[in-house]
Design a protein that fits this description.
pyruvate; EC 5.2.1.4; binds the ligand O=C(O)/C=C/C(=O)CC(=O)C(=O)O; three-stranded mixed beta sheet; MDMPI_metal-binding; maleylpyruvate isomerase activity; Four Helix Bundle (Hemerythrin (Met), subunit A); single chain; 2 domains; 224 residues
Length: 224
């Protein structure tokens, strides 16, 4: 398992808790950067996602495959949990982080490659999923944190992961800080340039502080 990514997830948990712990109670129930979601929805989703990943990991350890949300509807659970007050939300988030970290601390090296039902992946893929969830949803909270806080490693990972959203396009992505480009299609017709943060942020369907140049930017397909 890539220990650096696990460490980054643990740090992300601390950073997220720091961010939400500083909010006034009323700030939870106002907008986020996601249409139709308040910050409370983002927090509830992140907490439920952590428990879902913990449960899939535990099941994989027993040789079982379980659905990400076996007990019911993901969206209903987010709506229900988002109605909690600030203390309830922070407590749910902190408990979910602890549960996920305890489960991942107990995974033996050879068990990271066990299969899970989520995207027919492995337990190791769940760690990458949590990394994306944390980094991307922290900026959705619409606080001081922006895509500028993403590391170049995270930007490169996000571009790799989100590239299928450009299927059918003919472009080259050329993020300034990264020592590589990404080609989509057989004969790219234009080059999209910008910081790795802005390119990754745009591919994640969010509005970057500086929109990449080289447009018109292609329409994005569904999340992979
Ligand atoms: O792997 C990703 O980048 C995204 C994963 C999800 O969107 C997972 C959920 O939405 C969820 O667990 O509810």
């Amino acid at each position: 398992m890539n220990e650096a990514v696990l460490d980054r997830v643990r740090e992300g948990h601390h950073e997220l808790l720091d961010l939400v712990s500083e909010l006034e109670p009323e700030d939870f129930h106002t907008g986020s950067r996601l249409p139709g979601w308040t910050r409370a929805h983002v927090v509830a989703h992140l907490a439920n996602n952590a428990i879902s990943l913990a449960n899939m990991t535990s099941a994989a350890g027993r040789g079982e495959l379980v659905d990400p949300y076996p007990d019911g509807d993901r969206d209903e659970a987010i709506e229900r949990d988002a109605r909690q007050d600030a203390i309830g939300l922070v407590q749910q988030l902190a408990t979910s982080h602890a549960q996920l970290e305890i489960v991942w601390d107990s995974v033996a090296e050879q068990d990271w490659q066990r299969p899970v039902r989520f995207r027919d992946g492995t337990v190791a893929d769940l760690v990458l999923c949590r990394w994306r969830e944390l980094e991307i949803h922290m900026i959705d909270l619409d606080l001081d944190r922006t895509e500028q806080s993403w590391s170049s490693e995270f930007c490169a990972h996000a571009i790799d992961f989100l590239l299928p959203r450009l299927e059918g396009s003919e472009v080259v992505l050329a993020p300034r800080e990264l020592d590589r480009t990404w080609e989509v299609g057989n004969s790219p017709t234009h080059k999209i340039e910008g910081s790795c943060h802005s390119i990754a942020c745009w591919l994640a369907g969010r509005t970057p502080q500086q929109v990449p140049s080289g447009g018109p930017l292609p329409e994005l397909g569904p999340w992979p």
